[in-house]
Amino acid sequence: MFVDDLNMPALEVYGAQPPIELLRQWMDHKGWYDRKQIGAFRELVDINFVCAMGPPGGGRNPITGRLKRHFNALSFCEMEHSSKFRIFATILNSWLASSALPKEHGDGIVNASIDVYQTITTQLLPTPAKSHYTFNLRDLSKIFQGMLMANASKLENLPSLLRLWYHENCRVFQDRLVNNEDREWFEELMKKKISESFQTDFKEVTPTEHLFYGDFVGANVDNKVYAEINDQQKMIKVMEENLEDYNQVNTAQMKLVLFMDATKHVCRISRIIRQPLGNALLLGVGGSGRQSLTRLAAHMAEYELFQIELAKNYGTNEWREDLKTIMLKAGLENKAIVFLFSDTQIKSESFLEDINNILNSGDVPNIYAFDELDSIYNAMKPIVQDSGMQATKANLYSAYTKRVKSNIHTVLCMSPIGEIFRARLRQFPSLVNCCTIDWFSEWPDEALMSVAKNFLSDIPDLDEGDEVVDGLVSMCVVVHQSVAEKSKMFLAELSRHNYVTPTSYLELLGIFAKLLQLKKMELKTARNRTKLGLDKLLATATDVAKMQEELEMMQPMLEEASKETVLTMEQIQKDTIVANETKEVVQKEEQQAVAKAKETQEIADDAQRDLDEALPALDAALASLKSLNRNDVVEVRAMQRPPNGVRITVEAVCIMKGVKAKKVAGDKPG
Question: What region holds the Dynein heavy chain AAA module D4 domain (predicted)?
């Protein structure tokens, strides 16, 4: 059983390393306790351990002597100069065989590269502010890997070969340097090596200030050639066309200003991701364009770009599902993928552990289910058989992980500020060892001016002349740089940091645009209000003049109307006298009518009293009438001599009905 990085586990609070203690348990007792069956001890036989580790330091801890006593230690010393020369000279001379250059040039390139590497490893030592200044043979091999991307037959002379070699050294070593002092030291080192080893003037090797190499400028898309880019304007135009194409394809728009520093970083990222096992670690503060330039470089290379989408409930399970998706796509579909990951997306340090595994081995332990492993074996079987190997599970999975490692180009965007960055580099060494580092420095004057000019030109309210715009651009640059200088004084005097980032500069421009729009709106509102007031005054003056004319025209009519009014008043006075006389007559008649009404009321009251007295008798008569029946009528008719009451009642009814009485002879006359 092989265990790599044996001394990487962190120390616990009491100084022990639990994974190492677990290994030591088998070495002392030949087994482990079963976690499911409590108390059961499982012995394992026929096992040998082979472990590897780096010397303590830089995140690696000393291992306990109780574990070390079980091993036979073998120490691997630094490879000698002759061994390095033999390896890289064989590779480089094989590549140079297709060119007309002599073999001595290849040997000189290898010797100079080894000397530069050894000088850098002894002079550029890691410090707390430069914790990524760690170099190994991978960095030396990246120089030759970069040179082998070019076509050797296109190299016409020694300066063109040295130019390519100088460019690759800059990309491997200079791009990770943090300040101008270190970059100038490296520049002097390269000048010295070119002058001493090849007796060539440095200006002949690099006739221009900026040196660019890439494969994205050529018209032939199918056969891209990594070569020097001499036409910088054409290069910028190609980048702008790709940026426009990216904005048409994607919903998330990118508004980039491709100043010289930005184009350099695009070329560097493009160079990294076009290489097999090409991974990048982009170091810089927020807002420096690390993610945007990576998206542009991936689009230029026609690679698929993947970035996780953080959510509130995003956890380890979602993270491993995302990793599994891109790994299966890279391994089974053989697609080149750029995996963009930022330190702001690290919700758990286990994320970096998985990325460290992908960078180192192309695999994440225990990430695949059994059915997914079967699909991997079935997909890789014809590929392994075509290569002449046996289709064992180990060979199938090894071929798959090689594909994954080759096709996934991990681009990590991290901020170098703070202790947490240094701790992560110590805990996960593959972040430095397996990545090409590109340091994003603070924007130069040219970048600040380009961004400000582009930003101000997009403001529709800024319709001033070129002289005013240039003054505003210079003012923004001076403000940003003066704050940066004052921040250094602030740090020196009070030992407190105030970071001035490109994001601060963009916020400055944004605040200026917002204030400009606000003030323009206020001025526009005041102007409109003043104009409206003046328009009202002019309209009022016009209306007054018009009314004055109408008044003058109507003056005769007013005089005539006044005369008619006087006549009308006289007529009203006459009518008033007649009306008063009529009023007196009406008042007399009213008094008479009131008297008659009073008399009438008295008669009505008297009649009402009589009526009130008669009503009970009427009600009683009605009640008696309702109580009559046929027998009563028959009885009355049968009376020969009715009583007086009956007779009087019948006579009254006859009088009311108008029935005349019949005269009947009786006892008494009449």
Answer: 254-515
* Separation between Cα atoms, residue 274 and residue 520, nearest integer Å: 49
**Do 325 and 307 contact (CB within 8 A), yes or no?**
no
Render pLDDT for 407-421 as a digit per residue (tens, 0 to 9). Answer: 999 999 998 888 888
What residues are paired with 337 via a beta bridge? 304, 408
294 close to 287: Cβ distance less than 8 angstroms: no
Burial class (CB in 10 A: 0-12, 13-18, 19+), 88: buried
Whole-angstrom distance, CA of residue 110 vs CA of residue 640: 173
Residue 91 confidence (pLDDT):
92
pTM score: 0.73
Q: Are 486 and 479 in contact (CB under 8 A)?
A: no
Q: Could you tell me how far CA 633 lies from the centroid of its own chain?
A: 113
241-299: per-residue pLDDT in tens?
Answer: 999 998 898 888 888 888 888 899 999 999 999 888 899 999 988 888 889 999 999 99
- Specify the pairing of strand 2-3 against strand 408-414: unpaired
> Does 162 have pLDDT greater than 70?
yes
Asked if residue 212 belongs to a domain, the reply is no
Classified as helix, coil or strand, 342 is strand
The reply to whether 367 and 511 lie within a common domain is no
Q: Which of 440, 463, 498 is the last residue of a domain?
A: 440
